[in-house]
């Protein structure tokens, strides 16, 4: 509840929910859901929803005035304790995609975190199948891709570049595609969570290709290996294919179409969280926001 009241105070600084979501780096649907939940708990409307304008109702003004000073004082108390707490302890259950956590991008991050905070223990649950967070106990999760509305707090910390590529030998044999119709005639390799291949065309229009895969795997590296062997066209993260593109083992296709980038998200329960979890959130938000390509 305190986190939601703090969010309410911050939202009031902006002209619209959309602007607040962008500035606070929170998905719009999550922000609106949390404000609506607060209003439901209070049984009153805090904001007038007007096109292009967000302003407090009279009860909202009273609630804002009465909450502002206590919340700021509480934040100062928390900051003071954080500043004097040198013995940080705790155990964090982290759920994350196995492929992503094994990548060069993440390599060494948790060793550095453990060196900084040796008293904080991390229990990792790695899976490339999306666990149902509604029915799973966790402290923090990493998710790749667009998220559906949830009861958790979500924060986009980076975006992952994708690429459409194939072995030059395959293209020499079957021909280079210029359209999705041409692409449909080639063999396809798919990574199971990404069943549809999403692009922007040269006009910025969103388009989706539905592959009929000849090879399916739930491991990025296995899919990349299949592409290197000439078994099909692969749509996957540039992170795993960059070195093969650089040395000519793979080539990009349909260059008039830009593969859609996928969000890298941090997710945690919508409640007051332990200081140890906040430390990991801040650390990953900083480290995983760095350019990796």
Brief synopsis:
It contains 11 helices and 15 strands. The two termini are 39 Å apart.
Structure description:
Belongs to the LysR transcriptional regulatory family. This is Regulatory helix-turn-helix protein, lysR family. α1 packs across α3 (28-42) and α1 (2-11) crosses α4. The chain has helices at residues 2-11, 17-24, 28-42, 58-84, 98-101, 109-116, 168-174, 180-184, 220-228, 238-246, 275-287; strands at residues 47-50, 53-56, 90-96, 120-126, 140-144, 152-160, 162-166, 188-191, 197-200, 206-209, 213-217, 233-237, 251-252, 258-259, 262-269. The chain is globular, with a radius of gyration of 23 Å. It contains 11 helices and 15 strands. It has 3 domains: 2-84, Arc Repressor Mutant, subunit A (Orthogonal Bundle), CATH 1.10.10.10; 90-159 and 262-287, D-Maltodextrin-Binding Protein, domain 2 (3-Layer(aba) Sandwich), CATH 3.40.190; 162-259, D-Maltodextrin-Binding Protein, domain 2. By secondary structure, it is an alpha/beta fold. A 5-stranded mixed sheet has the order 4-3-5-15-6. Strands 11-8-12-7-13 form a 5-stranded mixed sheet. Mean pLDDT is 85; it is low at 83-87.
């Amino acid at each position: 509840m305190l986190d939601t009241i703090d969010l309410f105070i911050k939202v009031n600084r902006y002209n619209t929910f959309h602007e607040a979501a962008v500035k606070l780096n929170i998905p719009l649907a999550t922000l609106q859901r949390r404000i609506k939940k607060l209003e439901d708990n209070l049984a009153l409307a805090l904001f007038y929803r007007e096109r292009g304008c967000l302003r407090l109702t009279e009860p909202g003004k009273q609630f804002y005035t009465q909450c502002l000073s206590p919340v700021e004082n509480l934040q100062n108390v928390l900051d003071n304790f954080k500043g004097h707490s040198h013995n940080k302890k705790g155990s964090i259950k982290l759920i994350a995609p196995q492929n992503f956590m094994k990548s060069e991008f993440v390599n060494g991050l948790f060793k550095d975190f453990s060196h900084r905070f040796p008293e904080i223990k991390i229990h990792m649950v790695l899976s490339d199948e999306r666990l149902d967070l509604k029915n799973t106990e966790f402290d923090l999760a990493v998710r790749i891709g667009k998220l559906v509305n949830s009861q958790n707090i979500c924060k986009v910390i980076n975006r992952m570049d994708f690429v459409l590529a194939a072995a030059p030998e395959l293209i020499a044999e079957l021909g280079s595609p210029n359209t999705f119709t041409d692409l449909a005639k080639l063999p396809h390799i798919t990574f199971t969570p990404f069943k549809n291949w999403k692009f922007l065309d040269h006009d910025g229009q969103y388009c989706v290709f539905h592959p009929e895969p000849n090879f399916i795997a739930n491991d990025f590296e296995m899919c990349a290996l299949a592409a290197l062997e000439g078994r099909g066209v692969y749509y996957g993260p540039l992170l795993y294919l960059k070195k093969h593109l650089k040395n000519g083992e793979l080539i990009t296709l349909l260059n008039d179409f830009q593969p859609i980038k996928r969000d890298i998200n941090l997710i945690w329960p919508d409640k007051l969280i332990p200081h140890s979890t906040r430390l990991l959130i801040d650390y990953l938000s900083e480290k995983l926001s760095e350019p990796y390509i």
